[in-house]
Structure formats: structure tokens, C-alpha cells
Amino acid sequence: QVQLVESGGGLVEAGGSLRLSCVASGRTFSYDTMAWFRQAPGKEREFVSAISWTGVGTYADSVKGRFTISRDKAKNTMYLQMNSLKPEDTAVYFCAAVRSGLDTVVINWRYWGQGTQVTVSS
Predict the structure, then answer these.
(1) Which terminus of the chain is more solvent-facing, meaning fewer CB atoms within 10 Å of its CB: N or C?
(2) Distance between CA atoms of 32 and 67, rounded to whole angstroms?
């Protein structure tokens, strides 16, 4: 059974940093693109960042220059380093794996984690 488990969320002041992790089990994703999405209360889930199997990262404009995506294939784990956090980054952050189509489209992703809450206070 495939599972994606996020961790690392929490409460942080504006300007602070957090590092999210997404541990995959049940199969390897070494040759798959993986991604982070987020969903704020009352809003739709939105794309944050994706990383290809070769390690190339892409980012939403809203997080570019502040967030860095990475992965450790040996640990079947993906990370999201979030710096210079803003109150508008507050959301539940989800990891996703195996997509068919554009990275930014939610329904294109096959596997999802349960999410981890990130709250940024002003």
C-alpha cells in the first residue's frame, strides 16, 4: 500500500523558517515527479512546488526565492525548505506523487499525503 506522510509543520512567526518532509512507502518514486501543494481555509488547493526525478525544481511565483524543494531518493523522501515565511503561507501542506499532465493541476496527481499544518503568525 502506497503511503505519503508529511511532517514538519507547525507555528512560526513571520520571517521564520520551517522544513517539511514527505516520506513515501509502499513503492519507490525515484523516477517520478513529486510535488507540494497547499490549501488555506476556504480556498482551493494550490500548487507550491514540484521536483522531477532528475532533481529539477519548479515553483509557484508566490514562493519563488523563499522555498526550496529537494529529495533524497535513498530515503524515498522529499523536502520543502520554507524561509522568510509570511502569514499568507498559512495552509495545510500536502505532498503528492505520480502525475499525468501538468504539475500544477491537482487532479493530475495520483498519490496524496494527509497534510501537515503550517501557521505563520504576523
Answers:
(1) N
(2) 21
